[in-house]
Specification:
The chain has about 140 residues and is mainly alpha-helical. It has three helices and two strands; from the N terminus they run ββααα. It is about 55% helix and about 5% strand. Strands 1-2 form a two-stranded antiparallel sheet. The two termini are about 45 Å apart.
């Protein structure tokens, strides 16, 4: 694929592609070697491009390894949602107990603790049962 880089039909480097310094073949930014001649492309990559490529590689490896379908995924999601609902109910109950205790003893610190517990419990329940709760993975 030897060509004249100055000609109008020669592919130019863009945001998504870079030209090989040896043969001029366009390659993806994530490639480390030219797909045509095998020349190394990583020699002219900066540290930010290498870090970006490493992060993308880690993300794709995680996505490939993580189960996205099947009974195991559904069972894990159901178990996770159930535990979150139980935790939310427990936190709300503890918060209500602290608030009742604070009202009876006029303790402002117990009222604050109870409010925090109750708010976090209600938020946990709303996170699962609220709008969009069933769509979360």
């Amino acid at each position: 694929m030897q060509g004249n880089p100055g000609s109008s039909d020669f592919p130019k480097a863009t945001k998504d592609y870079v030209n090989c310094p040896q043969c001029g073949c366009p390659n993806r930014q994530s490639d480390t070697a030219c797909s045509f001649c095998g020349a190394s492309l990583s020699g002219r990559m900066g540290i930010s491009a290498r870090l970006r490529r490493a992060v993308e590689t880690i993300k794709w490896r995680y996505r490939i390894k993580s189960p996205r379908s099947g009974h195991k995924h559904i069972a894990k999601k159901f178990a996770s949602n159930t535990i979150t609902l139980l935790l939310g109910a427990a936190l709300t109950s503890i918060g209500a107990w602290f608030i009742i205790k604070a009202v009876n003893s006029s303790s402002f610190s117990d009222f604050l603790v109870g409010t925090l517990f109750a708010l976090y419990g209600v938020y946990s329940i709303y996170y699962i049962l609220g709008p969009g709760g069933k769509d979360r993975s």
